Amino acid sequence: MKKLPEITIAFWIMKICATTLGETAGDLMSMTLKIGYGASSIILLFIFMAVLLGQLISKKYIPPLYWAVILATSTAGTTISDFMDRTLGLGYAKGSAILIILLLVVLFLWKKTENSLNVTTISSFRGEIFYWTAILFSNTLGTALGDFIADDTGLGFLGGAVLIATLLLVIGLAYYFLKVSHIALFWLAFILTRPFGATFGDLLTKPIEKGGLNLGTIGSSLVLFIILSSLIFFSIFKNSKHKINTI
User: Fold this and answer.
1) Residue 196 pLDDT greater than 90, yes or no
2) Is 28 exposed, middle or buried (0-12, 13-18, 19+ CB in 10 A)?
3) What whole-number distance in Å separates Cα of residue 133 and Cα of residue 131?
């Protein structure tokens, strides 16, 4: 069953859009609408489980459904991370450390049971469960890590985004020019695109006096949603055109 997208440049652009939207939408729900981190996390986890169920029972790759699950993990990850770091008072460093450990445990168990972390060869229900669990933890980690880089290191939102973008560029160069495990590079890039989205999302929404551009959570979320929806529509059009040409 081919239920996951091809790992192309378009995939990474959509991933960054989805994770940035997850940051702004999560903040919109928990802070702008004043629902709170805990209640927002519960609501968003139910939404995540609902769209994940659709993804698990589907028999093929459906772009809107797949990216809805990615967006759900990113949005839920934002509020869960904020709940851990702020409501529970763990702080960004401790919260990031806990989530790193949990993610490594998931990846270890996945490798132990499925013998591979290669996302292009997932063909079992159990493999899919590990895949989405790892994504949920990595997207939750991304928010905590992004906040840690932006706030605790003093780099700010723009500095944090530039730092992570530089690391992603290094990973991209390593993919093409070094003999390094592509699976390891994929997961490093996958994890780092989340804090990039988190810091970039905060850069868009936070007040100017806090180092942001003060575009607000509503406007930023709407623009990012339009961009992501357009990219999903384009991927559907491209896939349908490819199928017609191969008939």
Assistant:
1) no
2) buried
3) 6
AA letter at 65: L
The rounded distance, in Å, linking the Cα atoms of 193 and 15 is 7
pTM of the predicted model, to two decimals?
A: 0.87
- pLDDT band at residue 47 using 50, 70 and 90 as cut-offs: very high
What is the rounded distance in angstroms from the CA atom of residue 197 to the CA atom of residue 208? 18
| Rg of the Cα atoms in the chain | 18
Contacts of 132 (CB under 8 A, 6+ apart): 52, 55, 69, 73
Q: What is the residue type of 101?
A: I
Of 228, 12, 19, nearest to 142 by C-alpha is: 19
pLDDT at 243 > cutoff 60: no
